[in-house]
User: What shape does this take?
Amino acid sequence: MSAAVEETTLGLDHRKLAMWVFLGSEFMFFGAFITTYLIYLNTTNGGPGVELFDIPFTSVSSFVLVMSSLTMVLGHHAHEQGDMRRMRMWILATALLGMVFIGGQAYEFTTFVKEGLTLTTSPFSSAFFVLTGFHGAHVTVGIIILLGLYSLSLTGKVKKDQHVKTEMVGLYWHFVDVIWVIIFVVVYLIPSG
Amino acid sequence: MASASATAGRSIFSRPMSTEGFGGWITTTDHKRVGVMYFWTSMVFFFLGGIEAWLVRAQLAAAELNLVNEELYNQAFTMHGVTMVFLVVMPLGAAAFNYLIPLQIGARDVAFPRLNAWSYWVYLFGGLFLYSSWFFGAPNGGWFGYAPLSTQIPGHNMAFYAVSLQILGLSSLAASVNFITTMLNMRAPGMTFMRMPVFIWMSLVTNFLLLFAMPIIAVALFMLQFDVVFGTQFFQPATGGDPVLWQHLFWLFGHPEVYIMILPGMGMVSEVLPVFSRKPLFGYAAVVFAGAAIAFIGFGVWAHHMFTSATGPVARSAFGLATMFIAVPTGIKIFNWVFTMWGGKIKFNSAMLFSVGFVSMFTIGGLSGVTHAIVPHDAQQTDTYWIVAHFHYVLFGGALFGLISGFYFWFPKVTGKLMNETLGKWHFWTWFLGFNLTFGPMHMSGLLGQPRRTAVLPAELGGDVELYNLLSTVGVGVLTVSASIFLFNLIKSIRSGEASGDDPWDARTLEWTTPSPTPHYNFAKIPEVTARDEFWHRKYAESEDGRAVPVPVGASDDNAGDAHDDHEHIHMPDPSYWPLVMTLGLFPFGYGMVFRSAPLLVIAAVWMLAGFFGWIIEPVAEGDDDYDPDAPPRGDDPDAPPRGDDPDAPPRGDDPDASSSGDSDAHLAPAAH
Assistant: This one.
């Protein structure tokens, strides 16, 4: 599994290549959900529609998530430098920012439900909740992996010279952020604007 | 905890060591064993799918029969389709990927051996989960589960469909990531893309198709499942849901899916035909690029399944044209196969017969497929037995013939024994006859207007249709006899088949350079690849008039005589029980999803999370971590080089004393091997 990089055909670590391949698949996954959402944009069944979106609020939580990509990069950089203490700090910061984002999403969902937009209101509401919910699930998985990386670096299972592990987590985390940027623009900004 | 104290330092996170017996199989990470397990599991499901086919054919043997009621009939044809697609043909392809990909590219295993084992277990448990639905009401809405019909079926039937296909999709997705990484990144030195065997090319294309098609069906299945279980409104026409959306998503997956099923067979036939024609494959590059073109165009033809749905004239014309286009690369392949045989020294054994059967039967299926591209014609054929005839000619006459051909071809490599040729020929001819008897008449009954998925054959369709249906049912009887011959031959040959030797067919690719059956480590020495059809070029040179002349033994540098002589310590992946442990968590997950049970879902989440971390922190059996240059050597391997015995031994050449000391040289020689 952990063949030295120079032994591989493409000169890439297997794990990194596999992560890129997997993320290609994930793009199709979110692509199909986003398409469905766009088809149902106006199919509100008399219930609330895009006017419910609180753009300033979601902008702030989007900013938080994008900033978490920055802390992720800093964490990877610190690991490459072999500074495990700083790496752990940035990884923890990334996980915390992710949690803030998830908290924001939980708040947003409860507000929408109070205002009459539930999972079963209309095709629009189903598409919205399931799309953003799956994104939230991806962020949650990312947080669990980040916390795992943090604890395993404490126990010595993730070593100084194994920055490829941090890089892999980073690839996934950046992907989740990129998808959110697309969702924020296509799902929130353009329809509301 | 006596055992824990006896083996100091071992915990539940230690790795299993044994590769023997039952425990060795369930903890295996060896790609060859995983491939063999895929094969046997799909054989069991093939048998079950055959029983379901019998239910359908017995009911339709004559008009106005009532052997099974309509509900059971619906479940039988749905389960037959789902079984044959997701539990037989796709896993048979996966069995071949597992066994052959590392061998054909000159690697010792796949990139992620534990993930590979996990893919298998997920497939097995997905299949078991699907079949457990027989106790609650099996899926009954057709293998394509058209919503909104499928969302309005009462009961758990379609929830089982959605969740089990989701689980099976997970298996395919994990496998595709693994195989793509393996094929791109683990090729032997010198194996450039255009030197890869055609089977590897087709596997690469197939796995990219899986990678991009599986997430689309995952999305559709999530929507279906949430509609059925949680009351979302994706496919509810009453609240404005689009009744055609499911069809678009399903066929956007479903059409690439048919190429996922046929391309491995095409790859196998492209290996078998050259060997038994004693000619290189005609137009290697054309075959490879045609395969890639099929994959590309395959994502743009899905709406030809929906010509009678609300798609509009522009879409119909565009998809009709694209469908005709996709026949071009397919035709290129067929001509290349024919020209491969043309003028060759053809040897008709079982493997070759099935390959030739593949080419001819698939051509018939392909031609009836082109008729679907003509929209008005398709409107006549939709939902008739013409469609059933067409897709059985491509899936049974195509994919399955190709896979069986590959099975006969590689059986000696897996077992070290030959299949019985007489029985193999009996198998082929009865199979060929039974297949055409079953599905040939369906062309006729379909054109005469017999509808699909109708539990009772109406008498007013007339005596001709009744006769064709009777012939089809008789055909299934012939196929049953044929399958029994195959099974008998298989068991007989495994037990007491003739020894095959390492290269019984005078074959062309790297897997035949290894001993049969292939040892755990595949290659004692990783081969250097200098040509396409590498093994052939090690055996034969070309004379001045273009004939193949054998290379004398030892004359070729590549063909090192001591290839089986193993002094080097080869590090192979250790067994692991975490793939199986992780998979068990899918059971509470599946039932929790179907029956909407939060406690089960919580159990599943905790279980899989624990399994995930157990997997990550599982150590390597030999030592604490993946690579530690100062680690002491394994104590239990007598063949291991003694380099670690003396950690202070100077590196070779650094110390002037070392080269002058004969003792030191002898000491280091095996390690530098």
